[in-house]
Design a protein that fits this description.
Blueprint: H1 11-21, H2 26-46, H3 52-67, H4 76-82, H5 88-101, H6 109-120, H7 125-138, H8 141-147, H9 150-156, H10 162-178, H11 189-193, H12 201-217, H13 225-237, E1 247-248, E2 251-252, H14 254-264, H15 273-291, H16 299-314, H17 324-336, H18 345-348, H19 359-362, H20 378-383, H21 389-398, H22 403-416, H23 423-435, H24 437-451, H25 458-471, H26 483-494, H27 499-515, H28 520-527, H29 530-533, H30 538-553, H31 556-562, H32 575-584, E3 590-594, E4 597-601, E5 659-660, E6 672-677, E7 681-690, E8 693-702, E9 708-714, E10 731-739, E11 749-756, E12 759-766, E13 775-777, H33 782-791, E14 798-804, H34 811-820, E15 824-826, E16 836-843, E17 848-858, E18 863-870, H35 873-884
Parallel strand pairs: 5-12
Antiparallel strand pairs: 1-2, 3-4, 6-7, 7-8, 8-10, 9-11, 11-12, 13-16, 14-18, 15-16, 16-17, 17-18
Organism: Salmo trutta (Brown trout)
GO molecular function: clathrin adaptor activity
Region (Disordered): 588-617
Amino acid sequence: MPAVSKGDGMRGLAVFISDIRNCKSKEAEIKRINKELANIRSKFKGDKALDGYSKKKYVCKLLFIFLLGHDIDFGHMEAVNLLSSNKYTEKQIGYLFISVLVNSNSELIRLINNAIKNDLSSRNPTFMCLALHCIANVGSREMAEAFAGEIPRILVAGDTMDSVKQSAALCLLRLYKASPDLVLMGEWTSRVVHLLNDQHMGVVTAAISLITCLSSKNPDEFKTCVSLAVSRLSRVCVSSTDLQDYTYYFVPAPWLSCKLLRLLQCYPPPEDGAVKGRLVECLETILNKAQEPPKSKKVQHSNAKNAILFEVMAADEWHDNGPQVLVMVSLFIQIAIDKMQLCSSAIMGHSVHKVYISKHFAHSTWLHVVCDCEFGNPWCNLCSFLSQVLKVAILAEKYAVDYSWYVDTILNLIRIAGDYVSEEVWYRVIQIVINRDDVQGYAAKTVFEALQAPACHENMVKVGGYILGEFGNLIAGDPRSSPLVQFNLLHSKFHLCSVPTRALLLSAYIKFINLFPETKATIQEVLRSDSQIRNSDVELQQRAVEYLKLSSIASTDVLATVLEEMPPFPERESSILAKLKKKKGPGAVSVELEDGKERGELNGGGDRGGDAAISTPSPSADLLGLRSAAPVSGAAPSAGSLLVDVFSEAGPAATSAGVNDDGFLRFVCKNNGVLFENQLLQIGIKSEYRQNLGRMYLFYGNKTSVQFVSFNTTLNVQTKTVEPLVEGGAQVQQVINIECLTDFIDAPLLNIKFRYGGALQNISLKLPVTINKFFQPTEMAAADFFQRWKQLSQPQQEAQKIFKASHGMDTEVLKAKLLGLGTALLENVDPNPENYVCAGVIQTKAQQVGCLLRLEPNAQAQMYRLTLRSSKDTVSQRVCDLLAEQF
C-alpha cells in the first residue's frame, strides 16, 4: 500500500486500518470488513457526484481489503475513472488498483487502454511513468497489441526524460517476454542499441536488460551492441569515468558491470583486435581488483565484487588464456564453497590445458572442472577440502538431471569426502533407489564397482550393503558380479567396520540367502563362526544367532515373506533438507521464482514463510522433489489463504458439478501435480506404482477462510476415509491403494461432496489411473527387440496412429514423455537414429503383457507415426491412444 501522509487527509482510511488491526478475532475482522464493504457499495451506487478524493479513499480501502485476502467484485469502474484525474495521488491509486485487481481479460481493458494512451501522449513524465508501469504490471496481449509500436518510439525519442526512458525499456522487456511476436523492433533496433552510450546510468542498465533479452533471440540483429558494451564496460572498470553516484561499497556500478558481462556472453569473442584487447583489459582489471585487499569488511563489498567475478567466470573469452585461469579458479572456489581453505600450490604445479566452468552450475554455486593434467583430476583434490558436504548433497539433489546422475554424484561424494558425509546423505540416496525401479539395477552395478576400491570408506560400505542386499539379484547374471563374488566383496570389508555397519552387513547376508540360495552354506558358516556367535557386542551376537536360526528352519516361502524387498518409502521432505534446516534455522533453504525460473538459495535469505514443498515438476529438472512449485496461474485470489501450493502447475478451473476429466490426460506421463482447482478447492495428487500395485495420495486444500462441512469422498477402490471437516486454509490427505487385476479402459471415478457456506458442492473427477502406470521397463538388445517385434506381427496385436505434432518436436521432451510412460527407452536399437523404440511389460494380477513401441517423427512434415505391438490387442490400442495425446 502507498504511504498515507498527513497531507493526503484520508483519515477515514487510517481509522479503518486501525480498526482492522485492533480486531480480537477473525470473526470480528470479517464483520468490520463486511460493514465497510456495504458502506462503500452504497456510496458508489447512491452518490453519483463523488469527488476524486472520496473515490481515491474508497478505492484505497478496497485495495487494503483485497490485500488482506478477501475477494473484491466491485469498484473497478471507479478506479478507471481515477485515471482521468489530473492529480497525481488520485491517478496513482487508480493505476495501482488496476495493476493489482483488474484481470487481463476484463471488459474494462479498452477503457484502461484509452486512459493509458492519453497519459502517454500527455508528455507529463510522471503520468507517462505511471502508465508504463501499469502496462508492465498487467502485460496482457491486448495491451501489447495496443502499445508495442508506441513504446519504442517513446524509448528512443530525443525529448523523452531519462526516468521515462528507463520505464519504457523495462515495459518493453515485459511485453516482449509475454508476447514476443508482437514486439518488432525493426527501425528502432540501432537506436535502442545506442542507448548503451546514454549518460544516465539507469537508462543504460534498463536498456541492457532489454537488449540482452532481444539479442538472445535475434543475435545478428543486435550484434553491433558488442563494441558498445565493451566500451561501456571499459569506462566503468578501467577508466572509472562513470562512477559518480553509482559506486556501491567501493565497487563501481556492480549491477551495470554484471549486466554488461551477461550481454557479452550472448556473443562469441569479438573478432576486432582492438575491441577484443579492450575486453581482455577489462577482465584482467576485474581479476586484479578481486585479488586486492578488501576496502571494506562489509559483506556488501564482497558480494558486489563476487557478483562481477561470477560473470567473468561464465565468459568464454578465458578458455585460452593460460595461467590466468588458475587465478580465477582459486577465487571462484573460495566463493562457491563458503570461502574454504584451498592449497593453491596443489593446483599450480599441474599443467592445466583447459578448464571449463559450467555456466549452469556457476549460477548454482556448484563447480564442475574438467581438466587434462599430469597428476590427476583437480576435482578430486578440490573435493577433499570440502567442509560443507551437506550443501553439495543438497545441490546434487536439487539439480539432478536424472536419477543415475544423482547416484553417481552422491557415491563419488562419499568416496572423496567420506568423513564429512552425514547419515542423512546416504539415507537419502537409499530412499531414492528404493522408490525408483528404473535406477535400482544401475545403483547396484555402480556401488558394486565402488566397493572394489582397495580403500573404501565405511559410508560406502553401508550404501553397498543395503543396495546389494535388496537389489544384488539385478546384477547377479554377470559372472563378474555373481552372488558369491558380491558376498565375498562385502565380507572383505566386514572386519574393518564399526559395530553399526557390521550389523547392517549381517542383515544384508540374510537377504542374500533369500535372493541367492546357492550362498546359503557359505553365509551360514560365517554366521555360526565364533567371532559372530560369541561376539562381545550383544546386538551383533543376537543378529547372528537369530539369522542363523531363521535360515536353518524357515521354509523358502516363509523366508521370502520375512525377507521380502523393502517397500517404497512414503513421500516426505528430503532428510538432507531437514538436516540443513535444523543447522541453519527456518530460513536456511528457500526457493524463489525469478522471471519464471526457480532459483535455490542455500545460505539464509530470510524467512520465506514456510518450507519448500515436495514436487516433481518435470523430468528434466528437480527429479528428487526439492523445488517449491510455481504459483497457480489463472487462479482467483483466495481469501485468507494459508495453503501452501505444493504442486508445479495449475489445475483446470472447473465448475463445481459434473465429471471433470480435463486434467486426466495431463497425468499419463507423470504422477504428480494439481488434478483439479476452482475458487474453493484445490486437489493435488502424488502417486507411485510398483508392478501391479499402486498408491495414490490426494491432497484436498481449502482455499477459503471458511470451513468445509460434511466433507466426503466416494471411490470404487480401497481408500482411507478423509476428515469430514476441513478448516479454512487447511489441507487434508487421503491415501488410495490400487491393484491392477487385469487390463482396463475406464478410470476410477472420484466423487467429492461438501458444504460451503450452507451450499452443497458436488465434484466428480476421473482419477488418472491408466494402464501404462503398471509398466515395468524392460531393457533389450537390438536383436532381441526385432525378433520379438516380428513375433507380434498379427493384425490384432498391432495398433498404429499417424498424427500431427501439437506440442513441438523437441528431442528431450520426447524422451521425457516416453520415459514417463513407464517403458524403457532403448538407445541405438532402431537403424534410423531419428526414431525412438521402447519396451516394457504391463504387470497385472492376472497376467503380464509385453509391449513394444516405435515412434517415427517426421520433422519436416511435423508428423508422427506411432506403432505399438503387444500380445493383447486392447492393450496395444489403449496405450497407443494415450501416448498419441501427449504429442
